[in-house]
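Let's sit down with a protein and look at its sequence and fold side by side. Once you have written the record down, we can walk along the chain together.
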Amino acid sequence: MKTTKMIDTRSGGDYKSFCEAILSPSTASGGLYTFSALPTLHKNELVRLSKCSYKELCEEVFSLLGLDIPKGLLRDALQTYENFDDANTPVQLKRYDENLSVLELYHGPTRAFKDMALQPFGSLIKSLSTDKRYLILVATSGDTGPATLESFKDASNIDVVCLYPSKGTSDVQRLQMVTKDSPNLKVIGIQGNFDDAQSTLKALLGDDEFNATLQNLNISLSAANSVNIGRIVFQIVYHIWVYLELLRREEVSLENPAFSHINIIVPSGNFGNILGAFYAKVMGVPINRLICASNPNKILYEFLTTGVYDIMTKNLIQSLSPAMDIIKSSNVERVLFALFGAQRTAQCMQSLQKNGVYALDVKELQALQGYFSASFCTDEQCKGFIRESYAKGYVLDSHTACGLKAYKDFKQSMEGKFVLCSTAEWSKFAPTIAMALREDKEISKVSHKSNDLGKLKEINKYGDKEAIAFLQGLDSQVTLHSNISSLFDKPIAQSQELAIKEVKPHIIEWLTQRR
């Protein structure tokens, strides 16, 4: 099968193989690597793939995409799914109502969807980089960091620097990072938000002086954020899998056009997860609409409904769904390239960088809206949907609650079954869930009977440990994974907090000492 080259979104050239692109994700233009071509999955191909296990589907998708990963390395990478709740099916699909299923993507070691890509991705990087020393940079709004650190801990030839907003994650997310004590890991809390962390990462990737210093240290530079196309490929797979699973369950039919398509709802901040669904749709998976669910930072909602991406007057809002507290969504660039080509993508990105805004014309907006719909959720609505879901017997996190709001917005106007991607386990945002449930008077009464909460602070001031205890006492069906419960007894190993200007020299000093 022909090998597919990766292409730069802004120049339309700078070709690399997939392996080259994941090891060195920077492009000369400052763009992102993406697919130069995508295969088409016809009906017979989908029927064939429906007989595959999850791991077999991964191998098939990599082969169909024409990626140059040796089968043995990919097979070894997929063994990291042995660390998930179900080694054979690392994702779980749960029925919510007759029209909605929830795709639970958080059954890996850090209890968030980032494990689905970063566990096998980390294994691939380690296998492909044995002859060099690498520095992996990662910026996180709360979930990418823990998943990256877990994937690369104790690697012999790979160092990882993780940047996170020191005031912008949940306690559990922060503990998942700052309790890591592997010598090859450096965790830095920055004085800023996620956009600052992501901008710092991108600046370092393109910093000639920084790269020259690494070269003198015989270190090659890569990244684990979704700027790396290696992350995205694994995220395509589960969007294909969920359609095939509904096909196996006979909830969709390839023979009946009226029941052939699904709508996929994705809580979105950096647009990488929904990008995987976009590529699956482009490849021919019968997806009707891609529904982007935003939180109060509704820049994606505004872009998808108006065609204007405007960050000039935007200030980041700290919301109850912090992993989506993002204004600069990197992966929108790959969608622009797929729809409008490299020249137009470069124009938009240059305008965003220079003026803080770009705008699509009427035809471009129509093309974009041929794929995407959008919704946003306020914090008050988020709490309401947490309560509503709990009343139905399903405990969901605050990000998935934003997706539930999108389902309510579109369920009457769109044909087909809906799939809601649940991106994190409830335990990662327990105080928000507890706060929402305590606002229900009946639940509050029950809580006093089942828990001794008299000496605890008001619920909106609870730490994660107290909130988890409240939720477990409230519902005996709520179980806590040992990877979360053990965090509260671990010592803090990484306490560094820096101003953005201090990050670069600190990394260089650390790497020099690591020689």
Observations:
- The first helix runs from residue 18 to 23.
- Residues 445-460 have pLDDT under 50 and may be disordered.
- The chain is about 45% helix and 15% strand.
